[in-house]
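Problem 12. The chain below contains 457 residues. Write out its predicted structure in token notation.
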Amino acid sequence: MIVVLTLLAGFLRLYRIGPTLQFLGDQGRDALVMFRLLTQGDFPFIGPITSVGGFYLGPLYYYLMAPWLWLARFNPVGPAVATAVLGVVTVPLLYLVAKKLYSHRVGLWAAGLYALAYIPISETRSAWNPNPMPLAALGIIYGFYTRKLWLVALSLGAALQFHYMIVFLGPWILWQLYLNRRQWKNILLFAATGLLLLAPLILFEIKNNWLNTRGLIEFLGKHQYGNLDWLLVIKNTIGRSEQVIGMVLGFGRDFNLLRTWITRGFLLLLIIFFKRVKFLAIYLLTAILMLAIYQDNIYPHYLGFLFPVVFILAGAIFSRLPKLISPAFAVLFLVYNLPPIYTLLHQNGNLANVQKTAEFISEDIKQNNYRQVNLALIDGTRDYPAMNFRYFLILKGAEILPIDQYPQTQVLYLVSPYPQTDILDQPMWEIQALLPAGVVETWEWPDRENIYKIKRL
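Solution.
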């Protein structure tokens, strides 16, 4: 049965992955880093910068994905396939961990729900640094349960480089380390392994006057985390629990009554079966409380460190319910998850259009023998330097100025999926740094990005 579930998970994560791939600014930025690593030996010591707080993650993600980019001949589909494969591998591993913690039946429930859940599927069909997080979280769970602290250190070191949200698991991790406090050799091995994995980021901190540390202190002060309204935090646990449980299980990203009642039922059953599931229940409840303290928006990819625990607990709970209730939940689960999965598998991504647009700009640069060229993008994603288009232009050998050299730019190609007017009045540094300038040529199409060529006067 687990073989069938794994094959099904593979189909849902790999089917039409190229045509549906969204290659956005973050993916373009990462692809450029990996391209330079592979072609110029430019080894990064830091990873992507976070959208909240402006912290730098570690570089592990780049080293994991770079071989796949090389195997795909620098096609971004390569890292996306790698991410999907990691998502597929997570399914049998989830079964094995759930079986180890509870039973074969719980393992099948957990793996089956995870294989067919919309949120985990959607989060593993593109290359992005948070997407391998569920596998790292599974390693943390299994490592602590079996007291293999070296595995915890490896998994935690990786998780800290995938996304900063893993820090919200801090109290549970400290509690587990406290329970293992007499295993001095394992604790020392845990510390050594963790330091080794995080060494590049630590060296970056030392070299750059503790940039991340200072940024963290500024971030905490700005959001007044030292002066919390605990009544508000307790109130926030309701919304956060619905996101962690109801949303992750596929019952809607926005508030709805079904998601609310699914979450309440889940938590009620968690309390009823608490003694049986205490190890993971504390993991989940700790994370929900910590997320209630967090004062910014929560998106599905933030919750990757909770995917395994939610599905294992779901398996542990629903496998013990009366025979009529469990199948009813399974049907409801499929009714809510299968339609968005179908849409996901049949939508069209933007990769082909990004390539076409980059090819067009590359040809125009060559025909006019331009020098000191740069790119900009207006599309609502705030990727103003157009990193996805920039990647393909650099891949084609076009000489594009770095993103900090817009004041030296002579020709700027502005890309936008929407028709633009009053381009020179746009409040973007990428455009304003070029002034005085004029729009010398315009290409607008109904089925792909529009291009506006701006030259310095």
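Discussion. The two ends are 68 Å apart (CA to CA). Students who got a different answer should revisit the alignment rule from Section 12.3.
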